[in-house]
Amino acid sequence: GNLNFVDLDSVQMLWIIRRMRDEGIYLDGRKMKEPPRLFLGAATSPFASDPEMQATRDQKKMNAGAQFFQTNLIFEPERLDAWLEQLDRRDVLGRVYILAGIAPLKSFKVARYLHEKVPGVFLPASILNRMEKAGDGAAEEGVQIALEVIDAVKRKTGINGIHIMTMGWEEVVGRIVTESGLDPPTPL
Fold this sequence. Notes:
It contains seven helices and four strands; from the N terminus they run αβαβαβαααβα. By secondary structure, it is an alpha/beta fold. α2 links the parallel β1 and β2 (68-73).
């Protein structure tokens, strides 16, 4: 029968696509006229399971062809250390680019939704409390939290960039990029 893409996990999918790119052959062995030119990435959830298990999964993804990882949303940058250490032990750090997922929280409702409904995303009580206490100033508090997380993530060895996820709040991105120092200063 036909192979359905839902029957593949991310490691198998990466392997197939890498083979298409590097060897110019389809899964069934046919040669391609124009192999795709791709930079392969994969998702990772540093806090979804224990750091060792996640690092092992990520190592498999790298071995299958992943050249970069995008983490899901990070609200506790200090918890990245154990995962990064496990990636380093497996010789993954420095061989893939890692983009940390950051999202400015627009409201306490958004914070609670992410915490309760989105798998692999964890908001500590301290962040939830800050958002709740902020009341009408929750959007501003959310920006400050994002800036704090970016500042902490920028200091981590092995993290190469930031992936800002807006969740419908695109207009705040310019401010976050500028205030976090992510954009290089414009030469005079």
